[in-house]
Amino acid sequence: MRTARRVRLLAATGAAVAALALSACQNGTGTKDEGTSGSANSTSASSTPKASEDSTGATSSGTSGSSGSSGTNASGTGSTGSGTGGSTPAPAGNSAAKKPGSGGGSGTTARVLCDGSNTKVTAQPVSRPLNHMLLTVTNTGSKLCDLTYYPVVRFDEMQWVPQPDEDTHPQAVVSLAPGESGYAGVLLSAADGSGDGGTTGHRLTIAFQGRTPNSSGGASATPSLPTKGMYYDSSLRVTYWQQSRDDINGW
């Protein structure tokens, strides 16, 4: 009896297991290997970085940003990326600016005033016209110098300034290149003796004018005079500086 009952129990149990297996196959919850495959796929999908949604790198994973060398689209601004996506150009202001005129001169010759420090001045009496003296100024410097207006002539401690002959006013300022000379004439006394206060001077000072009339033009010069000195009176006058000696010949 026990053996027959055990057989029936096993048969019933087997039928129940078969029914459960059939039911599982029908509703998709069975123990097939498909469940394991689905779990693996799900795990793989979750571990794979999500693809970038646009070209700016806003949602990119950062590993792509760090490898961006062109700096155009791979900005590297993702959640874990720190790359800058290319080098930043240096500011234009970093390059040295070439200053005007630093390349070897502007082409304009420097000009200075002629005075006693950059010229040699001589004073020579002339035989014709009578009672005249010739002043010669030679540029001994290295720059072009200007002789402005007329020489300020002073004998010894003379307290007055001889005036120029306006008829000798040149058309332009007399300019002397290094080694060149300019000239002026001096009327010492009236040939007919009409001048007053005649006296003999033993020391002569020639002062130079600046860019404006009667202004100081720099150092004075003291050219040598003959041992006997130079006679002058109230007729003392001068010419404006001239570029050529011919411009005062016969004055």
Topology, pairings included?
Elements: H1 2-27, H2 34-47, H3 63-66, E1 111-113, E2 119-126, E3 132-139, E4 144-147, E5 152-155, E6 163-164, E7 174-176, E8 181-187, E9 199-201, E10 204-207, E11 230-232, E12 237-238
Parallel strand pairs: 1-4, 6-12
Antiparallel strand pairs: 2-3, 3-8, 4-7, 5-10, 8-12, 9-11
Overall description:
The protein has a domain at 111-247. Mean pLDDT is 73; it is low at 16-107. The chain is globular. The chain has helices at residues 2-27, 34-47, 63-66; strands spanning 111-113, 119-126, 132-139, 144-147, 152-155, 163-164, 174-176, 181-187, 199-201, 204-207, 230-232, 237-238. The N and C termini lie far apart (174 Å). It has a five-stranded mixed β-sheet with strand order 2-3-8-12-6, with no helix packed on it. A three-stranded mixed β-sheet has the order 1-4-7, with no helix packed on it. By secondary structure, it is an alpha+beta fold. Helices cover 18% and strands 20% of the residues.
Distance between the termini: 174 Å
- Low-pLDDT regions: 16-107
What is the string of helix and strand elements? Answer: HHHEEEEEEEEEEEE
The helix-and-strand class reads alpha+beta
Number of helices: 3
Query: How many E strands?
Result: 12
Characterize the main sheet.
5 strands, mixed
Helix content: 10-25%
Average pLDDT score: 73
CA-atom Rg in angstroms: 56 Å
